[in-house]
Amino acid sequence: MPRIIQSLLFLLQVNRQQICEPNSNKLFWKAARQLLSGTMQQLMVEYRVCGAKAGDFKAYHTVNYAEKLISEIDAESVENYSQAFAKIFKWLQSAISLRKQDIIRRKASTRKARENRESKIKAAEERAVNRENYLNDAADKFKEDNREAIEAFERWQEE
Predict the structure, then answer these.
(1) Residues 126 and 91 in one domain
(2) 3-state DSSP assignment of residue 20
(3) Beta-bridge mates of residue 27
(4) Contact 9/40 with Cβ under 8 angstroms?
(5) pLDDT tens digit string along 121-155?
(6) How many domains does the chain have?
(7) What is residue 53's three-state secondary structure?
(8) Domain with 118 in it
């Protein structure tokens, strides 16, 4: 069950050097055990599923990587192994699925806002073109309707 702990710690953005053997991705229990005494619980309490994450991310801190680490683990076998691990595994699965849903929702919201902005820009451009055409048509109509008065005014200016 070390993959559950490793996946959880990676999701909580613990550096690989703190929990893995040097130059590998294999969990080093003696190092990881120090984080289990209280640090991991505090990180779990502070973890926020919703919203954009700020900071520097490594490839192993991603949700997809954490999910890939535990993808082959069966919940029933974890429950048979230990109830504590089963609760941690359930929390980890829930956090991953909720995080993915939040990411999808935020991407859709951003895409919708971008499309809305583009449509408003396009509508403003069309209004500007329509306004200019309307003003030109109105000016032409005014000139045609008042052609005699305009010609009389021009003759008066020449005199």
Answers:
(1) no
(2) strand
(3) 20
(4) yes
(5) 999 999 999 999 999 999 999 988 888 888 888 88
(6) 2
(7) coil
(8) 114-158
